[in-house]
């Protein structure tokens, strides 16, 4: 998700103290089976197709619910310590290590300060089946996802020079490897080698559009995608929103200045972890971040009034916020509208990666502004895939619809979750409510499945 750093660096010290308290992991089963041999074979062919040198490092398998299992593959994609990606498969099994033959498959791309699990999968302390990936797998969809390189960088890292060339182009290359791998494994395990859908939330939708933009120039047999599902992302502003495009240019210039000075990392995830730890350990303590607020109020403010945290820069859209909040008579945040258990959100924050490469953030602002020449929007009119745009009225919502009008597709479906009048947009369904809210299954996940079923 898009984030702007505003928290004090005291959180770095706080988080360091908290390390080791939030490292419990679900048990997994690692096994040498014919299925692993299949994956080894698949990564070889995928690497060749994607022109991306890689090798299979580890494979783990764990039960999600009933006969739904998650396979997690770590793939080495370079010589560096953190040159690796994760690939997930959540699917029904006929028997141990034998997935069902599934007609529909989707590759999910996470956003900022997330990994696959904290965006779409298993959330610490929550039922393993309570996720978009498990929901679709239960319906018979073959669900895949990626962990981008920066998700493997540990909380203790201090030298980020290796991130210098980690940008949209690098991540698209890794995503292509993941897609080719998924198609190869599906072919080898009975689901055929057909094209697959791609779903991206937030920054993940930026990568989705960039992927489809590049793929549109390939011969049809070399293409991978059957359809795309961008979730709550602005890729291009309409001419009527030129002021918002100008704000994107100003954010681009600010981030680019940091990059040019040698800052190749964005540490918003670390700061959010610090806020989460303070809230979990001392919710009523006085916040060192927002004067006059408790730790819990500070965390709720960042979640529910995210637009205020961008200052002195402007938020991507007016009243943009992660989650819809509730506020007391004095205007202080006191809860979340659509997430009953605050512990759920704290668990997500504590389990998410601390660091992210700056490159794709700069690319994103360049794309959105329209004032900086980048290669990721040159062929939008050549994208003729079926499209489902899913937005949140309190996130990027309707602002993300304009991009769909620039595509060459004749099959475009738009769904913006809107629960309040326009004048209450600051309180409406938020950017991350689409994937974390208690009612997301009904409002978001079910419509996504229904759209997939018709294509």
CATH-defined topology of the domain at 53-251 and 357-454: Rossmann fold
Series of H and E elements: HHEEEEEHHEHEHEHEHHEEHEHEHEHH
What is the residue-averaged pLDDT? Answer: 92
Total helical elements: 14
* Unreliable segments of 5+ consecutive residues: 1-29
Number of strands: 14
CATH architecture of the domain at 53-251 and 357-454: 3-Layer(aba) Sandwich
Which structural class fits the helix and strand makeup? alpha/beta
Query: In this structure, how is the largest beta sheet organized?
Result: 10 strands, mixed
How much is the radius of gyration in Å? 21 Å
Q: What is the H level of CATH, i.e. the homologous superfamily of the domain at 53-251 and 357-454? A: Alpha/Beta hydrolase fold, catalytic domain
Helix content: 25-40%
- Can you tell me the CATH class of the domain at 53-251 and 357-454? Alpha Beta
Distance between the termini: 28 Å
Strand proportion:
15-25%
Shape: globular
Question: Would you kindly provide a brief summary of this structure?
Answer:
The protein has a domain of 297 residues: Alpha/Beta hydrolase fold, catalytic domain (Rossmann fold).
Describe this structure in words.
Keywords: Hydrolase, Signal. This is Alpha/beta hydrolase family protein. GO terms for molecular function: hydrolase activity. Helix 7 (242-260) packs antiparallel against helix 11 (359-369). Strand 7, helix 6 and strand 8 (225-231) form a beta-alpha-beta unit. This protein is an alpha/beta fold and 455 residues long. Helix content is 35%, strand content 18%. The protein has a domain at 53-251 and 357-454: Rossmann fold (3-Layer(aba) Sandwich), CATH 3.40.50. The strands form three sheets. Strands 1, 2, 3, 4, 5, 6, 7, 8, 13 and 14 form a ten-stranded mixed β-sheet that branches. The protein has a two-stranded antiparallel sheet with strand order 9-12. It has 14 helices and 14 strands.
């Amino acid at each position: 998700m898009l984030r702007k750093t505003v928290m004090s660096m005291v959180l770095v010290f706080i988080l360091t103290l908290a390390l080791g308290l939030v490292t419990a992991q679900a048990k997994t089963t690692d096994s040498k089976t014919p299925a692993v041999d299949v994956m080894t074979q698949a990564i070889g062919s995928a690497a060749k197709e994607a022109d991306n040198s890689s090798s299979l490092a580890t494979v783990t398998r764990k039960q999600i619910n009933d006969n739904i299992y998650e396979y997690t593959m770590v793939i080495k994609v370079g010589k560096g310590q953190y040159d690796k990606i994760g690939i997930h498969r959540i699917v029904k099994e006929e028997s141990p290590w034998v997935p069902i033959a599934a007609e529909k498959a989707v590759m999910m791309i996470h956003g900022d300060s997330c990994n696959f699990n904290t965006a779409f999968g298993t959330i610490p302390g929550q039922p393993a089946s309570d996720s978009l990936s498990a929901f679709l797998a239960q319906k018979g969809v073959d669900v895949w996802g990626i962990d981008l390189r920066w998700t493997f960088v540990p909380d203790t890292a201090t030298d980020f020079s290796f991130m210098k060339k980690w940008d949209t182009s690098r991540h698209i290359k890794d995503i292509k490897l993941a897609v080719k791998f998924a198609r190869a494994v599906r072919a080898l395990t009975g689901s055929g080698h057909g094209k697959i859908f791609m779903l991206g939330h937030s920054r993940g939708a930026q990568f989705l559009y960039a992927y489809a933009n590049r793929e549109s120039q390939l011969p049809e047999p070399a293409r991978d995608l059957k359809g795309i599902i961008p979730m709550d992302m602005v890729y291009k502003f309409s001419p009527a929103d030129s002021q918002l495009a100008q704000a994107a240019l100003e954010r681009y210039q600010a981030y680019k200045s940091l990059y040019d000075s040698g800052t190749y990392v964005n540490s918003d995830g670390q700061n959010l972890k610090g806020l989460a730890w303070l809230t979990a350990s001392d919710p009523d303590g006085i916040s060192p971040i927002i004067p006059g607020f408790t730790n819990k109020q500070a965390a709720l403010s960042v979640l529910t009034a995210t637009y205020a945290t961008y200052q002195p820069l402007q938020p991507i859209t007016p009243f943009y916020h992660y989650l819809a909040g509730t506020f007391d008579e004095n205007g202080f945040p006191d809860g979340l509208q659509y997430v009953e258990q605050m512990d759920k959100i704290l668990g997500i924050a504590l389990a998410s990666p601390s660091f992210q490469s700056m490159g794709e953030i700069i690319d994103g602002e360049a794309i959105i502004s329209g004032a900086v020449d980048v290669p990721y929007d040159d062929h939008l009119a050549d994208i003729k895939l079926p499209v489902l745009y899913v937005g949140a009225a309190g996130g990027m919502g309707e602002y993300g619809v304009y991009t769909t009008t620039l595509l060459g597709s004749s099959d475009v479906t738009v769904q913006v979750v809107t629960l309040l009048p326009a004048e209450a947009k600051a309180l409406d369904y938020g950017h991350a409510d689409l994937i974390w809210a208690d009612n997301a299954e009904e409002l978001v996940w079910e419509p996504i499945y229904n759209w997939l079923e018709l294509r």
